[in-house]
Design goal:
- The complex is a heterodimer of chains A (112) and B (115).
- Chain A is built from no helices and twelve strands.
- In chain A, the strands form three sheets. In chain A, strands 2, 5, 6, 10, 11 and 12 form a six-stranded mixed sheet that branches. In chain A, strands 3-9-8-7 form a four-stranded antiparallel sheet, with no helix packed on it.
- In chain A, a hairpin with a 5-residue loop joins strand 5 and strand 6.
- Chain B starts with a strand and ends with a strand.
- Chain B is globular, with a radius of gyration of 13 Å.
- In chain B, strands 2, 4, 5, 6, 9, 10 and 11 form a seven-stranded mixed sheet that branches. Chain B has a four-stranded antiparallel sheet with strand order 1-3-8-7, with no helix packed on it.
- The chains are: A mainly beta (112), B mainly beta (115).
- At the A-B interface, strand 5, strand 6 and strand 11 of A face strand 5, strand 9 and strand 10 of B.
Chain lengths: 112, 115
Amino acid sequence: GNSVTQMEGPVTLSEEAFLTINCTYTATGYPSLFWYVQYPGEGLQLLLKATKADDKGSNKGFEATYRKETTSFHLEKGSVQVSDSAVYFCALGDTNAGKSTFGDGTTLTVKP
Amino acid sequence: KAGVTQTPRYLIKTRGQQVTLSCSPISGHRSVSWYQQTPGQGLQFLFEYFSETQRNKGNFPGRFSGRQFSNSRSEMNVSTLELGDSALYLCASSPGRKSSYNEQFFGPGTRLTVL
């Protein structure tokens, strides 16, 4: 079955540091890949997405590239801010709409 | 467009009781999925409804059930509550068209505490 593996957290960085959160997946076919972010007390918000190999998703300075050869979708940001502190989830979408498989989440704390 | 709404936001129940949670999807979305989020198990898929029919189901006991109405609103029910059912229950909607581009839009969740 489908599975997603995220790098273990938590991750603590200083403001303006470079961020990488690793994500690898196992899936049949060619699923869409997503990064979601969850702030305290809230639901998940879509951060970025990629629907096919070599696609790069980007939003708010975050980027991730769909790498089919390494089955990876690593999240990167060049300069993090305190406001980026949240839990980040990598996910893959089933080819049938309605079900996503999530990684365990990575808690990011950015200190001023 | 209004986002996904869930009611109630917080709920406290005791063991053995039952509970019903409600979710209103984004207007025009026909697929509603439910997830359970706990610190130990992470995000786990419960089930998905599309056009009033359960289309996908996760690996949860029969105490967890759901339904969808003709206006796409969905409810999930948990009977005979156990302490381990304490969790954040998230609802997500999507247009529902069969596509690999199946982004889901999440509600704020219902925090259920079982005492």
